[in-house]
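Q: Structure for this?
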Amino acid sequence: MNAQKLMLVFTSAPYSNSNGQEALDVALIGAAFEQDVSLLFLHDGVFQIKAGQQTSAGIKQTTKAFAAVNDFGIDDVYVHDLSLIARGLNTEDMMVDVKEIDTKAISSLLNQHDRVLTF
Amino acid sequence: MNAQKLMLVFTSAPYSNSNGQEALDVALIGAAFEQDVSLLFLHDGVFQIKAGQQTSAGIKQTTKAFAAVNDFGIDDVYVHDLSLIARGLNTEDMMVDVKEIDTKAISSLLNQHDRVLTF
Amino acid sequence: MNINVLVTGGLYSTQCAYSAWRFCRAAIEAGHKISQVFFYQDGVSQSTNLSVPLADEFDAVNQWAEFSAQHGCELVVCVSAGERRGVIGAEQAGEFGLPGSNMHAAFRVEGLGVLQAASLEADRMVTFK
Amino acid sequence: MNINVLVTGGLYSTQCAYSAWRFCRAAIEAGHKISQVFFYQDGVSQSTNLSVPLADEFDAVNQWAEFSAQHGCELVVCVSAGERRGVIGAEQAGEFGLPGSNMHAAFRVEGLGVLQAASLEADRMVTFK
Amino acid sequence: MTTLFTLNKSWYDSAWLYEQLVFASEGDVVLLMEDAVLALGSPITLASFLAKCSSANIAVYALIDDVSTRGISNQYPSVNLLGYNGFVDLLIEADKQVAW
Amino acid sequence: MTTLFTLNKSWYDSAWLYEQLVFASEGDVVLLMEDAVLALGSPITLASFLAKCSSANIAVYALIDDVSTRGISNQYPSVNLLGYNGFVDLLIEADKQVAW
């Protein structure tokens, strides 16, 4: 069995649901299986990795784990440029090193992966 | 205890979730308690009462019940004009007699109700 | 004032359990009364006694149970919404011949009429979804 | 071909149970194999043995069980997604000292690794949400 | 009668609702919470909505807990941040709530 | 490699995704299902999306079961209606699926 290229796509903001956490869990399992895993943040998903999130009483700051994805062998972290611009954000607002790419580049990227899971 | 004016607002389309069915259940209980109940359909909620829905194997056609709301003493059924227009629909596409109203009229209507529940 | 709370969102698909719980605590602190929290639609999932949240996750079920015990507020689960979704009290389990029940003892099952009656008695009603 | 199915949506907040079930039947009819249906996120609710849908509602749990019995397809529930949401197998109930379990016997509990392994073996993977 | 409109949906998913001013009218109050606070970080996104609210005499608040959890820095001086205690006060001061 | 993009979200909630052509590229296939079929009843709503798909050589299908359940009459000749068997064929013909 060859390794697959697996992409996790984050489309929703943190805290209001568990999509970010549960997508990340799939990514980490993929990395543990030595798959080639990459992450793509678009639409409100870019807020998953926004810097400056503060913990609040009794609510889990799920997104801290994103800062450590490199430690799990996940180096390809992409962010959609238009999604950032529309939200008044730029790559320096992100808590991890990201590659900013446009819609066309995302289309190409999706083509290059064997499995793409959206959350 | 005086009767309250209760409004149910339908904002999502049928079949993809149970919002329509469960909002209607609240409306019918309100009517059974002899409250003054009205229904408002807006955004994709207008599809709840679209005529011409066909049953499909194993899927419940929840919206048939809307055709009978008059029998339960619910006579005030409102539809948002812009929501219809944006979807290429008009009041003749609806399976019940509806009053078509604009955004401003909806604001006034909300003001006149004691309880407003959105689904 | 007497506030009636309606909760309709799921545990991990919405933030509604947390938002409603924070609101209820703030209302009590301000001297108001939460007469009832009514769980409807996917909100019924907030009453299961089988959930095992992670240590750092918000434990909605037990937080509601504790809130109710401290402040005497009723936690009511809609019977039909619960039956559809598999959130079942002990009596229902017997009635339908189900293999068990899974509702936390701090909650009780009622019909939508109880929500309607509470709405009539309350000074304010507030929905979290 | 060998198709792996991932199901992540809730029973009454999405149409995903129905869509996935219709797809799986059509795939079998076309001569393909559904190796596994994996239930993740709110999709775990499709495995409860406590739901009582109305007579004219789609009975996802029993339809999946019947489909699995007829076509030998594995129904796998994600352990962590289930524990968070209170969907619990018999073993887990003992492990956590819970008052009971509520998973239908046609389903079994596994970690996400099983999804990853099935994805590697399958010719196609399809998600319903 | 005045109404408290609570809004927990992201502008980026539900712009139509903001365009309708969430069906509020003069004297009503809007509280942005949960995903509705996300747009507060962009100085452009909510400008038109807030201008229309202002001229219609509709006050707009945001729940500070949801703002800080998400790491948003509010770009709109006309939006007052408040806690759950302020939320409770808004409900009591209004005659009813509508939850979008 | 070609991709099957399945889309189950209403245009009226998720226009941004349609504006990005659901990130499909030449030779890919789009299947509208569940709430994504709602907009097929309006001759205007999907016109721009479908024109762009057509010029990018992206085929667009819709699931007939979801169309008829909702009572929608499809206004777009370029959108082919198919059943679940057709859905299965699309998945097999593509190299993978992306579910929006």
